[in-house]
C-alpha cells in the first residue's frame, strides 16, 4: 500500500533544501542557493513556504552591514522529511514486487 507523499516536500527545490538542512545544523542563504542552483527569488519563495509550514526556521541577521539569512530544520521538518522518505520507500517496495 502506498503512503501519501507530502506535496510540500514533493517539489524538487523544497526537497533539495530539506535534504541539505537535514544533515547540517544550519545553512546560510548563499550556500543553499549555490548548492541548489536556484535563483535568489525562487529560493526565497520556497524557504518562506517551508517556514510557513513549520518545517524550517529562518533567522534574519547581519554579517557586518550585509543581511544574512540562516536556515535551520525544525523537529517538525525533520519528522516530515523522514516520513516523506518512508513514503518513497513504500513506492519502491511495490515496484520491486
Shape: elongated
CATH class descriptor: Mainly Alpha
How many structural domains?
A: 1
Distance between the termini: 12 Å
In CATH terms, the superfamily is Winged helix-like DNA-binding domain superfamily/Winged helix DNA-binding domain
**C-alpha Rg, in Å?**
15 Å
Number of helices: 4
Q: Please state the second-level CATH architecture.
A: Orthogonal Bundle
Which helices and strands appear, and what pairs or packs with what?
Layout (H helix, E strand, L loop, with lengths): L11 H11 L4 E2 H8 L3 H13 L3 E8 L2 E8 L1 H22 L1
Antiparallel strand pairs: 1-3, 2-3
What does this structure look like?
The chain has 97 residues and is of the alpha+beta class. It has one domain (12-90): Orthogonal Bundle (Arc Repressor Mutant, subunit A). It is 56% helix and 19% strand. The mean pLDDT is 93. The chain has four helices and three strands; from the N terminus they run αβααββα. A three-stranded antiparallel sheet has the order 1-3-2.
Q: Would you summarize the structure shown here?
A:
This protein is of the alpha+beta class. It has helices spanning 12-22, 29-36, 40-52, 75-96, and strands at 27-28, 56-63, 66-73.
What features would you highlight for this structure?
97 residues, alpha+beta, 56% helix, 3-stranded antiparallel sheet, Arc Repressor Mutant, subunit A
Amino acid at each position: 500500500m502506498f503512503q501519501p507523499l507530502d506535496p510540500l516536500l514533493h517539489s524538487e527545490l523544497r526537497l533539495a533544501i530539506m535534504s541539505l538542512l537535514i544533515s547540517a545544523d544550519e545553512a546560510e542563504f548563499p550556500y543553499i542557493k549555490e548548492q541548489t542552483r536556484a535563483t535568489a527569488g525562487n529560493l526565497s519563495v520556497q524557504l518562506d513556504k517551508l517556514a510557513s509550514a513549520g518545517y524550517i526556521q529562518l533567522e534574519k541577521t547581519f554579517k557586518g552591514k550585509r543581511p544574512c539569512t540562516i536556515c535551520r530544520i525544525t523537529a517538525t521538518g525533520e519528522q516530515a522529511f523522514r516520513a516523506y522518505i518512508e513514503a518513497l520507500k513504500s513506492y519502491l517496495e511495490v515496484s520491486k514486487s
